[in-house]
Design a protein that fits this description.
The chain is 47% helix and 21% strand. It has 588 residues and is an alpha/beta fold.
Length: 588
């Protein structure tokens, strides 16, 4: 076992402290050069330097009267200062048994005075030194002066280090220090040894946003300052790291079990009483990550901690252990966002498939719904159920709807030229309804392609309509007045408010497939669908049933007075060429 009194261990710790400061081989700094020039002037000597003792060299962070950046460590007086941690005065190198045959003496240096550069933890990094070409005695006042200058150098070192390692608000070490300390675990633990880290998130982004809109940034500062003492108690003897706006990380004691450590954190969450306004406006969560000492990258561990703490918001306990499987889903989602943005600019990856809508009265095809399909060059066909929900939650909504509308209109032009009269329905997101120029863009596209407005239908879900009802109503009203058909999609799964259904200028109500598929085997569902159909008719809407897969369901819908049906019983979504063949077969 290593001992602090063992010279090899002490030197290893000293070198580690030096390398952590990230001073070696850095650019010159005026802050250090100013002190070095002062030393040369005060001692009236031609040479002064801030010399750092590395494994086999003396590297000069700052220098006066020296051309080279480093000299060998062997027989260098500064190395002796670093090893002893004490001031060293050599009046005449040629008269000193240790240094008479040193490289410095051979270069003509006769006088050396060096004061140790010592960290608060007691590690000597090197020396603040002055040198001359003539022998010289050293006074006590000169010893004190050089010691003071060395202290000034260390103050500058610690200041620069703190600027990149300490959060100014909480006073806690930041994520840079977390990463550094995580690597240092290799000193006290075996390579690959399992270890635990925790991240406490004091509030969700939504909670922070809502509270700061009312109370401002001073409130956030108070949340952080108030939390620090409790988090230090929770971390015990370990450090607490301020790694995010309201996020704090720390390591479990070496050898701690997941069960015991989780129990400690859960107890803290359970006992955390509201403290002032912040306690009532925010809720804390904890993420836990298991990692291997010396093998997992610190920034990967931090990312996993953030992920686990975010997932914990869906947990009743408020604590979640990092799941690689769940993380893979998030990474896949992130990948999909980037790839879809790229695909929208390429002509060969995205295409539309069209699913027919059938009249339940005469069996004719009354129109088609345009459905986006994605054939990725490497991943192959990506299911719509995987990428479509992502669109509404990102800035891709506008570009995607624009792409689909343009492709649908081009197809309508082709069909009209071939003598095929079909209405095409396009799905529109809540984000599109909030775009101030959405109506103008739709009508401009119809005019540019010389298409009548009635050939286009826009399908909007209940949840989209209710996100900003007034904006949605105004947009729908203008489109409806221009002749564009409006359909309320997935009816029954959202708000199902009679007030909005009565007020919205919709032509069609589409009953969601979750109700339609259960009609054959559930009388209550059948009664509910029948009521939906009658209610929609009473309000002046046509009704389309989605997800029709059997003749029995089709017959029940016909008996209930439903106008149209859509589903696999009639046809799956098809590309235009296959749809043309299908239409020809229906007409035969």
């Amino acid at each position: 076992m290593n001992s602090l009194h063992d010279p090899e261990s002490r030197e290893a710790s000293r070198l580690d402290a030096l390398h952590q400061l990230e001073l070696l081989d850095t650019a010159p700094s005026e802050a250090f050069d100013r002190i070095t020039r002062m030393a040369a002037q005060l001692f009236q000597l031609p040479i002064a330097a801030v010399s750092l003792t590395d494994v086999d060299r003396q590297w000069f962070k700052s220098k006066v009267g020296v051309e080279h950046n480093a000299i060998p460590r062997l027989k260098a007086p500064c190395a002796a200062v670093a090893e002893s941690g004490t001031l060293l005065a050599v009046p005449d190198l040629l008269e000193d048994a240790c240094f008479r045959d040193s490289p410095l003496a051979e270069s003509g240096i006769r006088f050396y005075l060096g004061a140790p550069l010592t960290t608060k933890a007691g590690h000597c990094l090197g020396a603040m030194c002055v040198l001359g070409t003539e022998p010289r005695a050293v006074t006590e006042a000169e010893r004190t002066t050089l010691t003071d200058l060395a202290a000034m150098v260390m103050a500058q070192v610690e200041l620069q280090h703190a600027l990149g390692r300490i959060d100014p608000l909480s006073g806690l070490p930041n994520r840079n220090q977390f990463a550094s300390d995580m690597l240092d675990l290799r000193i006290v633990a075996a390579e690959g040894e399992p270890q635990l880290a925790a991240l406490v998130s004091l509030a969700s982004p939504e909670q922070l946003s809502d509270a700061m809109r009312v109370m401002g940034s001073a409130w956030l500062d108070e949340v952080v300052r108030t939390a620090v003492p409790a988090l230090r108690r929770l971390a015990g003897e370990g450090k607490v790291y301020h790694v995010g706006t309201t996020q704090f990380a720390f390591f479990a004691p070496l050898g701690a079990s997941l069960v015991r450590f989780s129990g400690t954190l859960l107890a803290w969450l359970g006992e955390r009483a509201p403290n002032g306004q912040a306690g009532f406006l925010t809720s804390a969560t904890v993420g836990l990550v298991r990692f291997a000492v010396g093998q997992d990258a610190p920034l990967d561990v931090l990312r996993n901690l953030h992920s686990a703490a975010h997932d914990a918001r869906e947990s009743e306990s408020g604590l979640r252990v990092y799941s690689a499987e769940q993380d893979a889903l998030y990474r896949r989602r992130f990948w999909l966002i980037g790839e879809l943005g790229r695909a929208l600019e390429r002509p060969d990856e995205l295409h539309l498939a069209f699913q027919p809508k059938m009249s339940l009265k005469d069996g004719s095809c009354t129109g088609v719904e345009a459905l986006l399909r994605w054939n990725h060059p490497e991943a192959g066909m990506i299911p719509p159920g995987e990428f479509v929900p992502i669109i509404e939650s990102t800035s891709l909504a506008r570009a995607t709807t624009e792409w689909v509308l343009e492709a649908a209109m081009r197809q309508l032009v082709a069909w009209h030229a071939a003598g095929v009269a079909l209405q095409v329905a396009v799905n529109v997101s809540a984000v599109n309804l909030e775009e101030p120029d959405f109506c103008e863009r739709v009508l401009e596209g119809l005019a540019r392609h010389a298409l009548p407005a009635a050939c286009l239908a826009l399908e909007l879900t209940e949840s989209a309509l209710m996100r900003k009802p007034k904006a949605a109503h105004d947009t729908m009203e203008r489109l409806a007045q221009a002749g564009v058909n409006i359909a309320i999609d997935d009816f029954g799964t959202g708000y199902s408010s009679l007030a909005y259904l009565q007020d919205m200028p919709a032509d069609v109500v589409k009953i969601d497939q979750s109700f339609v598929r259960g009609m054959e085997n559930d009388e209550r569902t059948r009664a509910l669908v029948t009521t939906m159909i009658k209610l929609s008719h009473d309000l002046g809407h046509r009704v389309v049933a989605e997800g029709v897969e059997t003749s029995g369901v089709a017959q029940l819908l016909r008996e209930a007075g439903c106008d149209e049906a859509q589903g696999y019983y009639y046809a799956r979504p098809m590309v235009p060429a296959l749809l043309a063949e299908w239409l020809a077969q229906c007409a035969a």
